[in-house]
Write a structure and sequence with these properties.
This protein has a single domain, classed as Rossmann fold (3-Layer(aba) Sandwich). The chain has five helices and eight strands. The chain has a five-stranded parallel sheet, with helices on both faces. It has a three-stranded antiparallel sheet with strand order 1-8-7. Helix 1 crosses helix 2. The two termini are about 15 Å apart. It is α/β, with parallel strands linked by helices and about 180 residues long.
Length: about 180
Amino acid sequence: MSIVHTIFDQADIKRAVARMTCEIIETHENIEKLALVGIQTRGVYLARRIQDMVASSEGVRPPAGCIDITLYRDDWTRITPHPVVRKTDIDFSVDSMHILLVDDVLFTGRTIRGAMNALIDFGRPDRIEVAVLVDRGHRELPIYANYIGKTVKTRREESVDVMVLEHDGMDRVDIRKEETDE
């Protein structure tokens, strides 16, 4: 049995993404050099939301793509013997760009490390930054996010479940803990 605690509802997610977008715009004086890369799966949808908000605010739509990092993780063989590899689609040059990697949750840092490794296969960006909806701590690698929707203290045995309307039919973030029979 699971104990679920909702930490973000639809309005909270909308506010967090809007706030992160404002911070991104403030940081990037030259929006034309900005490109977004969403990490499969939910990071892709969050990147598109940021892209839409930047376009609405600045009148410039930064390019956006998606990347799957499954085979770039250093621990993928521990996760599953048969990984599911999703689509990677970056149809713009990353050379000399300011790339914003977008993901739903930052945990150990291994996903972001894998995304950086995968991204370098496409060229040499001038800068790589990270935006995440939830930073839950417990880093195993020295990786941080430049833009954070919410920082949440969690226990390692808990999970953070992000749901987005485009993929899951709702916007919500839950912390889930499995109950034990002790």
